[in-house]
Specification:
single chain; 166 residues; mainly alpha; Ferritin; elongated; binds MU-OXO-diiron
Length: 166
């Protein structure tokens, strides 16, 4: 059974992962509307990954004998300046999620909940990968820009980041 303060923070994280899924889905829709089909596909796949992150937490909480809560989530933004704005926002969002995961890890240590500490290590590794992924895309944009042919090429490249089976 989880301690109350840890349960509350884990449930908050369920909500945060759910919000991230909706945010990336909204971004995918915006990209599709701009004809940026590669980025749209990438972000829609990433939206599904965030749902998996949510379910993983949800199942863990319930396995401990505590109860996962489906909380309210606010609507994500639906309009963006350009593709760079989209990916700057994804990167900032991932940094925020990382700081929340770090706070959770710290709490497990304070509460001597080593099982949850162990469970959260998957998220620590995942955040490292996601930060690197989004930062890499932003770096490419800085180098080639997002105008004309560069935008076309970047969109194709981002689309190729989606694993083949998806
Ligand atoms: Fe669930 Fe992209 O962090």
């Amino acid at each position: 059974m989880l301690k109350e303060n840890l349960l509350k923070k884990l449930n908050d994280q369920v909500t945060a992962e759910h919000y991230a899924s909706n945010l990336y889905l909204a971004m995918s829709s915006w990209c599709q509307a701009q004809g940026l089909n590669g980025a749209a596909r990438f972000l829609s796949t990433h939206s599904k990954e965030e749902l998996e992150h949510m379910y993983k937490l949800f199942n863990y909480i319930n396995e401990t004998g505590s109860m996962a809560i489906v909380g309210a989530i606010e609507a994500p933004p639906s309009d963006f300046e350009d593709l760079k704005d989209v990916f700057e926002q994804t990167y900032q969002h991932e940094l925020l999620v990382t700081s929340r995961i770090n706070e959770l890890v710290e709490l497990t240590l304070n509460e001597k909940d080593y099982s949850t500490f162990n469970f959260l290590q998957w998220y620590v590794a995942e955040q490292h990968e996601e930060e690197a992924l989004f930062k890499g895309i932003l770096d490419r944009m800085e180098i080639v820009g997002i105008k004309g042919r560069s935008l076309f090429m970047l969109d194709q490249e981002i689309g190729r980041l989606v694993p083949v089976q998806q």
